[in-house]
Amino acid sequence: MRKYVDNFLIYGSAVVGLATFFGIDAQSILGGLSAMSSRTIVLLLCALAFITGLVLRWMEKNVTTRNVERKIRAWLDNFAILHSVVPWEP
């Protein structure tokens, strides 16, 4: 959970800082949104959903400490190797 908060703070502050540097504020964003047609908004939402899906698919392919057990189990199932959980005594 902490990793997500750190990433949010880092990337969020970078986006806000860049927007401030280029003179983009909330009033100009709201003015631009009110001038958009509904077709443009739907296009933006679809593009956002597509990019989110690509990122999630890319993250699923990587082996991390969070999904290593699931990945190994899938590999064993693909090769039809019997497996079971073995208790590990420290």
List keywords for this structure.
90 residues, mainly alpha, 71% helix
Number of strands: 0
Low-confidence stretches: none
Kindly report the oligomeric state of this protein. single chain
Query: Beta-strand level of the residues, as a percent range?
Result: under 5%
| H-E order | HHHH
User: What is the rounded Rg?
Assistant: 22 Å
Which percent range fits the helix content?
over 70%
Shape: elongated
Taking the sheet with the most strands, its summary is: none
Number of helices: 4
The total domain count is: 2
- What is the arithmetic mean of pLDDT? 83
Q: Give the helix/strand class.
A: mainly alpha
Distance between the termini: 27 Å
Verbal overview:
- The structure is a single chain.
- With 90 residues, this protein is mainly alpha-helical.
- It has two domains: 1-35, no CATH class; 38-82.
- Helix content is 71%, strand content 0%.
- The protein contains four helices and no strands.
- The mean pLDDT is 83.
